[in-house]
User: Fold this.
Amino acid sequence: MADIAARVGISRAAVSLVLRGVGGTSEATKQRVLEAAAELGYRPDSLAAGLRRSRSRTLGVLFALRRPFEVEFVEHLYPLAGHLGYDLLLGPFTAGRRQDEAVDELLRYRCAGLIVVGPDLHARDLEPLAEEVAVVEVGRGVTRGLVDVIRNDDAVGTRQAVDHLVSLGHRDIAYVDGGENPGAQERRSGYRAAMQDHGLAEATRVVPGGYTEDEGARAAHGLLANQPPTAVIAANDLCAIGIIDIALRAGLQVPGQLSVVGYDDSRFGRIPGIDLTSVRQDIPRMAKQALKAVVDRLDRPTHKPKDLVVRPKLVVRSTTSHPSR
Amino acid sequence: MADIAARVGISRAAVSLVLRGVGGTSEATKQRVLEAAAELGYRPDSLAAGLRRSRSRTLGVLFALRRPFEVEFVEHLYPLAGHLGYDLLLGPFTAGRRQDEAVDELLRYRCAGLIVVGPDLHARDLEPLAEEVAVVEVGRGVTRGLVDVIRNDDAVGTRQAVDHLVSLGHRDIAYVDGGENPGAQERRSGYRAAMQDHGLAEATRVVPGGYTEDEGARAAHGLLANQPPTAVIAANDLCAIGIIDIALRAGLQVPGQLSVVGYDDSRFGRIPGIDLTSVRQDIPRMAKQALKAVVDRLDRPTHKPKDLVVRPKLVVRSTTSHPSR
DNA sequence: TTGTATGCGTTATCAT
DNA sequence: ATGATAACGCATACAA
Assistant:
């Protein structure tokens, strides 16, 4: 930047004004600065800029690199953040990287806010963070401290799945659970409540599973071994895919002999050969709201935390049909 | 940091020495500094640190968030980079984010080096970058300028697939192509050459496809419509999964009536119900070498670029068997 | 072993 | 409308 100033013959401050696009400069110098910048191949230094205004224009994103929903969420975040003038700093947690390490790194880079997409972190870990930075949690609804929450109404989602299957004539509807994963608890209780409301409390069956294909496949083995249900709702899409694979291998027709519903409507469910009936979370809307929540909190740090619940929507495809019996 | 210095009653420089773990301080002050740091909840400021030593300890990673191979590669990068004392700055490109935007952002954060995992970028775009930062390219082998290259021997991979199928008795082996994707060209020519070497030039059949399940599924439709082959090699795992789905839906048994080989040995191929025979790229090794290459180049910026080729390995699972006829 | 002084590239404050 | 100057938090060279 000093180079540009020297070349044009003005102060560095003036150059800064032009480059930031704030007013206060004459049109003539503005043009000359822009020209010089292009010629010199100038590239702004986000480090220095962030250092100066202690409140950096960077948002940290915590998520699991392996969960399709979270990845899709992040994808939607990018254009929105860019539009608001924020950079995104990704803090993925994976097998080789603990979550607190990820948080630590983001904080070292002085993120202004934190978007926690995969809240495996317990509320008690998140709460103290909220005093340093703006924190918004996506998925799990533990409103405590100053943490904003954007979440999908998981219970309604599985209820929609049950309603759909019941309307097709199913009664023997099993549920493959998601264990401790984000949202899994609510999905399970939504299933339970819906079954009860339909007078199917007796037919309620919850099988331990998970959010991965592996766990879905394992659950399917047990489920199909004796007295297989006519329909199964999976904790998420990957789990559903694992179930379908096992079912097909076992010679069961899907949906002829077994209807399957997933959750998330992720890209894997949309594979033509799978074409999974699934509960869709409104990711674009949630991403937008999450961003809005962080930015709002940056403006008013002590504002009352919001808890926004977004309604999911069942997308019927070709893994569900009338039961054969 | 100033707070710690004030509290302990020494200079900020001394605190810096302790915190960085370089010698030059007495054990007594060291303890007192560490204590004070913990009490005050001190967190180093990577921005400021990076600004000071212009050569930041940050490596940028360019990759496609949707390609399993690249994501797995990134996962392996984390523990290795951490061990070398580098932070990773992720520059994913997705639907809502062009590649040059991603590059630009990484450069604005003054990354010391760039690891380009998904080299969709053309060599002519990469080359000028290499004069500013250390660049290592993973996947595509276009050694030009000062760009180091770590790549898998794609041609050998598809050759291994062909060899395997031929040894099982297959002769009618088709190939579903990966188009313009990284490595696709080499995989295709490896297939072609291997077929020729086995005297199967006549049976060579390349069908346009891609790196996604969708493209695999579309290719399968055309492929299975008339005169289906007894075996098919897919450009990558996702593509293979798309093919398998269509084949199963069409009533074909896999591998009974159609053997399928994928590429990458990604987690989707390892789904129990899929259990895909696939060509494995040695990701841990490649990740290690890529990191080594960047670090080496940071030490000797003008050193002759290296071009390291890693040998892949066929992993035989249950989607390949003897042909039925 | 410890402290002092200076600079990294930018932005914000104040004065012109 | 524009410019000089200080400050952001840390690392480094050098002096003590």
Q: What stands out?
A: Chain A has a mean pLDDT of 91. Chain A touches chain B through 50 residues (CB under 8 Å). The first strand of chain A starts at residue 58 and ends at 64. Residues 77 and 119 of chain A are 17 Å apart (CA to CA).
